[in-house]
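The instructor's notes for this session suggest beginning with a concrete chain rather than abstract definitions. Hand out the sequence below and ask the class to guess, before any prediction is shown, which regions might be ordered.
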Amino acid sequence: MRNPKPQEWDSQKLSKKKIADYKAFNFVDGEGVRNSLYVSGCLFACEGCFNQAVQNFNYGTPFTEELLAQILTDLDHDYVQGLTLLGGEPFLNTEVCLTVVKAIREKFGHTKDIWSWTGFTYEELLLESPDKLELLHEIDILVDGRFELSKKNLLLQFRGSSNQRIIDVQKTLAAQKVIIWDKLNDGDHAFEQIKKQALI
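After discussion, reveal the predicted structure:
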C-alpha cells in the first residue's frame, strides 16, 4: 500500500481519461438504485484490492460525450437515486469526474445524489490540489480510506475494511468535522438463521 504526501499525485498528469466500466441501475454501490462509473487508474496498490486490473490508468476505454449523455439519460428515471464514482481512484481522474458531476448538477441540481469511493482519507483530501477539493465539494457521500486487508470485515455496509468511513460530505463541510452518514447500518451477524415453522 502506498501513502502519498499531500499533492504528490497529480491527476492531470496521471489520468488517461479512461473508463473501466459503467453500470446502470444497480443496488450495490450505495443507497438506492444507482448508476456507477468506474474510472481507470489507482496508485494506492492496496493488498487484496478487489479490482486490481483497474489500477492501470490505460485500462478500459476513453471517456466520451456519448457516455456522458447515456449517464444523464439513465439518471433521468425517477427511481434512480444517483450516481456513484468508483475505480480505480476517482480523485486521480478529476477531469472526467468533474465533467460528469457538473453535468449532473446542471441538469438535476441536488435531486440526484453523488457518492464516491476513494483511497484518500477525508483529512488527506483537505490538503490536496484544487481539482480534488472541487470534486470533494460536489460529492454528497464519501467512502474514504485505503482498503486494509488486516481490517477486512464482511459485515460492514458499503465498505471492505473497518478503517473506512461513510461520510456525509455536505454536513461535514458545514460542521468542519467529520459527520458519519446517518443511515449507517453495519451487520452484526455473518448470516441470518432462517427458522421454519413446522406445518401441522
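Then share the key points. Residues 145 and 179 are 15 Å apart (CA to CA). The beta strands are 18-26, 33-39, 61-62, 80-86, 113-117, 141-144, 165-168.
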